[in-house]
Amino acid sequence: MTVEIARQALEVINRRMRDRDAAVADLFVPHALLVGSEANEIAHGSKAIAALFAGIHGRDYTVWWDFPLLHSGGDTQRVWLFGEGHAVVERAGGSNRLPYRLSAVLVAEGDDWFWELFHGSEPQSQAAPMRPLAAGA
Question: Measuring CA to CA, how many Å separate 48 from each of 53, 93, 97, 116?
Fold first, then answer.
């Protein structure tokens, strides 16, 4: 169940990122913390997160994420996730796939899920791909 929630949340945020939709910020709770892989990509709270996304959407490329390896856990109110895959940077001339990791927390509000923590990072060297973890590991 939790991995389905995580994948659905990633699908929604990716769609809004590809569309440069300012409403991407609405996917975060008001007190959320977003930490990207760049030194200046730290935003706490709705206004700061909206401003960060406005800056990203103003660039000459779009960014979205592809996490074929995804771990998650949690309950009916809070889901954590860890993804290992790529940040996909798309420009008019093509796209680049950069190694990327995401640690995040989603919280339920009614029937919807919102990002409470979004912490992305670019590994400094190519690590061996993540292996599925055994239950309880």
Answer: 9, 31, 27, 14
Per-residue confidence band for 134, with pLDDT thresholds at 50, 70 and 90:
low
Q: Is the pLDDT of residue 127 over 60?
A: no
Q: How far is CA 106 from CA 62, 84, 87, 99, in A?
A: 23, 17, 20, 22
Count of C-beta atoms within a 10 Å radius of residue 49: 23
Alpha helices in the chain (DSSP H): 2-18, 46-57
- Tell whether the model's pLDDT for residue 53 goes beyond 80: yes
What tokens appear for 9 in the block? 């949340």
